[in-house]
Input
Amino acid sequence: MRGTRQQIEVVPTPADVTIVAQQLISAAANVSIGKRGFFRVALAGGSTPRAVYTALAAGENLNWERWQIFWSDERCVPPTSPDSNYRMAKETLLDPLAHRGDAPRMVVRLAGDGDPDAAAAAYERAVRETVPANPASGAGQLPRFDLILLGMGADGHTASLFPHTTALAETERLVVANEAPKLNTTRLTFTFPLINASRRVLVLVGGADKAPALHKVLAGPRDPDLYPSQRLHPVDGTVTWLVDAAAHSQT
Ligand code: 6PG
Output
């Protein structure tokens, strides 16, 4: 079946978000490795996935040598910075895995420490070289991740696709440097064409501060420049909103 499948899964607490996310990611990895030999996944930054990465590293062996790991966005900082999304995943997932003797097949860091436009272009090339397209899908020739993990900010942004920023309208490039004037910063981010070509998009949302935006994104009038997460519609895939009760309290 072609088209977007949307699932909204509401769980009581942030701890439940972690448990269910771990289950969904593990299942997606097993299915992808079984069908295609690899699990091609993009990780998210922010604080919510931290516990999920820790749980994945401590859980069952997931055939890590078949994982190809990317990032859906990155801050323009060195990989050693406390703000680095790479560093967060390294500390919570990659280092614990290495400690127990496991290593993903491929870890492709989105380099926040160089020229942002060059880093975005290099990452786009790396994605195209590694992640095959599925011409039979409605996503055409775009690289098709097995899973893209995302969060959502209290302003409705996802990845580093902030309200009213230029990257929202991108239709050609897969990875761009996006200026976020309100944050006075530039971020590197996947664009919607790449995100929406994915087989599966998993959005983790927790906390009462996200409740107004989640309501607007899921149930409000369409205004995707103001609420960028409204653009999450995999053309031939599933988007799962995994939210805790506090975040869902106004929807
Ligand atoms: C980042 C993100 C961003 C994040 C949301 C939610 O680098 O910060 O990728 O899009 O996922 O802002 O962040 P929290 O999980 O911290 O609420």
In short: Residues 44-48, 73, 85, 151-153, 157-159 surround 6-phosphogluconic acid (CB under 6 Å). The first strand starts at residue 5 and ends at 11. The CA atoms of residues 179 and 186 lie 4 Å apart.
